[in-house]
């Protein structure tokens, strides 16, 4: 007879699993571009390979979300995804032609991307059941990402970026081993209701929010896709690339805890504008600086750029979109932030990188971020005037 795991043990296993899958994410984000470079692919080709993931994630996240709903299990779906990810990683390690790599990446990303929203659902349900904060579990993902970036940076500097795929295989096997002790949860991911799509987009406030999120996300994704290549081109080795990603991941941890404790004291739109401003400064610094060590140090600004945005944007959506359409709003947000922005930045970022180099690429990224910053400032001013007018109208009628 099987007995459920004690509540504390259940959370510990989930923290370990979250730590491990984000170690994999770190290698995929940080070192796959360098792996493609070792295969002699051009910047344009690498950008197109990067854009495959966001495109596939639109379909795969929805498909596996619905599948987990119908099967009523998160654990079994996660195990299935991890097994497929491992098999496809081994297959990727066997090929070097651009066409075959692209084809296998389509399949790989179909099973890779849904792991993270499913794990978030797992973490949210576990935290709610135990009366704890979701951040207390999710933060182990940031720690895993940071540890992986630094550890495998040193290892890959010694053995070469061509071994990145085998690192992904190893981490996939370890993640699979940690998935089996997890206490299963019934999937509670609500699929996006198309009937609610128009209701959400009809709100001018929401439409403008998604527009400025897209602009900010393009800047973010350009940095994500081409930071490793940019550092490599100006003389950095794999370990220095690892330091860059480690600093960015670690820097977001204190911000998550601070916002969790004190974030409610501040309004969302001014915080989003501040995030856009810090993104602009961060990306401009990378454009101007030519010393890899100084560029690595700019990743500390990840804390007040992405850290603030990640936490506040979801809170804003939860406030302005009615409960019955919230899952639709969150699905749209994910598509805009991850899928559309990733597709645009991967496709056109590679062309910019190859034609004009790092400096112009990051100047364009900073430009998108600055426009987003101005947009959020404008929305904040309009919201402030609207609140003032409402208060004055209430005073006149009282």
From TrEMBL:
InterPro entries: MFS_assoc_dom (IPR024989), MFS_dom (IPR020846), MFS_trans_sf (IPR036259). The chain crosses the membrane at residues 12-32, 44-65, 77-94, 100-118, 139-157, 163-183, 204-222, 242-262, 269-288, 300-318, 330-352, 364-383. Keywords: Cell inner membrane, Cell membrane, Membrane, Transmembrane, Transmembrane helix, Transport. One of its GO terms (molecular function) is transmembrane transporter activity. This is MFS transporter. It is a multi-pass membrane protein. It comes from Paenibacillus suaedae. GO terms for cellular component: plasma membrane.
């Amino acid at each position: 007879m099987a007995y459920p795991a004690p509540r504390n043990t259940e959370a510990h296993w989930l923290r370990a699993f979250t730590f491990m899958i984000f170690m994999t994410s770190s290698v995929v984000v940080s070192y796959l571009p360098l792996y493609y470079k070792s295969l002699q692919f051009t910047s344009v080709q690498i950008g197109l390979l990067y854009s495959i993931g966001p495109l596939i994630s639109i379909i795969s996240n929805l498909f596996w979300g619905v599948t987990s709903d119908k099967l009523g299990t998160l654990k079994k779906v996660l195990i299935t995804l991890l097994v497929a990810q491992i098999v496809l990683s081994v297959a990727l390690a066997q090929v070097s032609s651009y066409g075959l790599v692209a084809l296998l990446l389509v399949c790989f990303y179909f099973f890779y991307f849904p792991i993270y929203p499913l794990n978030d659902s797992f973490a949210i349900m576990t935290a709610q059941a135990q009366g704890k904060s979701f951040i207390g579990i999710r933060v182990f993902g940031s720690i895993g990402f940071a540890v992986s970036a630094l550890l495998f940076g040193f290892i890959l500097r010694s053995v070469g970026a061509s071994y990145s795929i085998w690192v992904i295989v190893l981490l996939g096997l370890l993640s699979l081993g940690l998935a089996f002790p997890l206490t299963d949860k019934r999937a509670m991911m609500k699929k996006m209701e198309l009937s609610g799509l128009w209701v959400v987009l009809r709100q001018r406030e929401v439409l403008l929010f998604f527009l400025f999120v897209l602009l900010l996300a393009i800047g973010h994704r350009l940095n994500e896709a081409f930071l490793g290549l940019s550092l490599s081109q100006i003389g950095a080795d794999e370990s220095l690339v690892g330091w860059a990603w480690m600093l960015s991941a670690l820097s977001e941890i204190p911000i998550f805890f601070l916002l969790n404790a004190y974030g409610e004291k501040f309004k969302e739109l001014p915080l989003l504008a501040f995030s856009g401003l810090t993104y602009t400064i961060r990306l401009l610094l990378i454009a101007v600086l030519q010393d890899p060590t100084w560029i690595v140090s700019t990743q500390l600004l990840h804390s007040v750029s992405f850290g603030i945005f990640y936490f506040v944007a979801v809170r804003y959506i939860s406030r302005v979109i009615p409960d019955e359409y919230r899952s639709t709003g969150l699905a749209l947000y994910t598509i805009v932030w991850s899928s559309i922005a990733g597709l645009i930045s991967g496709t056109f970022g590679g062309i910019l990188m190859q034609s004009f180099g790092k400096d112009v690429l990051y100047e364009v990224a900073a430009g998108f971020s600055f426009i987003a910053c101005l947009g959020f400032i404008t929305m904040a001013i309009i919201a402030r005037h609207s609140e003032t007018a409402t208060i004055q109208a209430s005073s006149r009628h009282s």
